[in-house]
Amino acid sequence: MRGKPKLFLFQACRGEEEDMGVPALDTKSAGDQMDARAIGLQSSSGFLKDPVWEDMVIAFATIPGFISWRNTDQGSWFIETLCMVFMEHSYDTSLRDMLDIVGLQLKKRQTTQGRKQSAEYTVRSFHKKLYLHPAFSIPAE
User: Fold this and answer.
1) CA distance 92 to 137
2) Helix ranges, 1-141 (H)
3) Which long-range contacts (CB under 8 A, 24 or more apart) does 83-86 make?
4) pLDDT given for residue 11 in this prediction
5) I need a labelling partner for 2 at 20 to 30 A (CA). Which of 26, 78, 110, 125 fits?
6) In angstroms, rounded to a whole number, what is the distance separating the alpha carbons of residues 81 and 101?
7) Quick one: which of 61, 83, 77, 53 has its CA closest to 9?
8) 61-101 pLDDT tens trace
9) CA Rg, the chain, in Å?
10) Who contacts 131 (Cβ-Cβ below 8 Å, separation ≥6)?
11) For residue 110, what pLDDT is reported?
């Protein structure tokens, strides 16, 4: 599977803590910018190597230590939101951008007691834009 994109989705609790939430802020920051340079381009053996763990996106329903919420009728918040976002955006939005949208949509949800859920995803040497393009058809010749 070297060089092939790999997506892992984990719908599971990762602990027993409940996210109580905090009062929302109504500010928008420009975000931090970083400037990074490569330190060296050759290994001690004289040629470049690829990382063993690469081309992976690993998405979790919640962050470490916390529970993942579900609706008894509609299922888990994470999977329901993920499916909705994929159905609405996969034709023109990259995978990582869709996972960001999932996070933003989950931010809007809460239990009747005000509990929240934060999904996360990890990228392991995945530097490409991956588009799923459902219903994409190749014209017949």
Assistant:
1) 14
2) 77-89, 95-107
3) 86/132
4) 94
5) 78
6) 9
7) 61
8) 999 999 999 988 989 999 999 999 999 999 899 999 999 99
9) 19
10) 90, 92, 93, 94, 95
11) 92
Look-up of token digits 């990228």: 123
Count of CB atoms within 10 A of residue 7's CB? 15
How high is the pLDDT of residue 83? 94
What is the model's pLDDT at position 51?
76
Q: Find out whether 119 and 104 touch, Cβ atoms under 8 Å.
A: no
DSSP string, 55-77: SEEEEESS-TTB---EETTTEEH
The Cα 73–Cα 75 span in angstroms is 6
pLDDT tens, residue by residue, 12-68 = 999 999 988 888 776 555 445 555 555 555 555 566 777 778 899 999 999 999 999
